[in-house]
């Protein structure tokens, strides 16, 4: 289900993230936030990917905790890969770590401090309205051209496990979801490996993934 906003946060910032979500929804925005919107018995990583893909904007509740959170970094990576606009909302006076700076250096930032936060939430709402208005008037991006299928042997179960192991070292549990989806319409190992490497936005991560071939 499409939502206006995907809220990304680390667990120690849960209270702020849900307070922000309540404020956004009171102003008429539709919001996706975990764990509230994860379906019962759903596969967590798959739900996260689907929600990021369906959102129009990601609001990142940014703090010292989220700065060092592998889960937050993976969500930001997926958002960048999906060309989803990210609005970092700083609730502490910290700068992004190198791993996040790579993805966030060109983003517009808003500060959610000092207290009280209500005036900062109002500025956030105004910025989101402008972004969503701009997005509504922007022409759709052209579809990417189909790539020619590589000629190689069909996929085997052992090859899938090997790819999942390599990708999980970089992306964590999301790797299994990405491989399952890509393998559904990818006929061979060479093409699947190429597609998975393209999912990694960092050149260093792509190099590590490809260099780990057995």
Structural commentary:
- By secondary structure, this protein is of the alpha/beta class.
- The chain has 2 domains: 3-137, 3-Layer(aba) Sandwich (Rossmann fold); 157-211, no CATH class.
- It contains 10 helices and 5 strands, in the order E-H-E-H-E-H-H-E-H-E-H-H-H-H-H.
- It has helices spanning 14-26, 44-54, 64-67, 70-81, 98-104, 118-137, 157-171, 174-184, 189-198, 203-211; strands at residues 3-8, 31-32, 55-62, 85-90, 110-111.
- It has a 5-stranded parallel sheet with strand order 2-1-3-4-5, sandwiched between helices.
- Strand 4, helix 5 (98-104) and strand 5 form a beta-alpha-beta unit.
- Helix 7 (157-171) packs across helix 8.
Write a concise synopsis of the structure shown.
With 214 residues, this protein is of the alpha/beta class. The chain has helices spanning 14-26, 44-54, 64-67, 70-81, 98-104, 118-137, 157-171, 174-184, 189-198, 203-211; strands at residues 3-8, 31-32, 55-62, 85-90, 110-111.
Topology:
Blueprint: E1 3-8, H1 14-26, E2 31-32, H2 44-54, E3 55-62, H3 64-67, H4 70-81, E4 85-90, H5 98-104, E5 110-111, H6 118-137, H7 157-171, H8 174-184, H9 189-198, H10 203-211
Parallel strand pairs: 1-2, 1-3, 3-4, 4-5
Helix pairs in contact: 7-8
Strand tally is 5
Unreliable stretches (pLDDT < 50, length at least 5) are 140-152
| Rg computed from alpha carbons, rounded to a whole number of angstroms | 19 Å
Strand order of the largest sheet: 2-1-3-4-5
Span of the ends, CA to CA: 39 Å
CATH superfamily of the largest domain: Toll/interleukin-1 receptor homology (TIR) domain
Which structural class do you get from the secondary structure elements? Answer: alpha/beta
| Individual helix count | 10
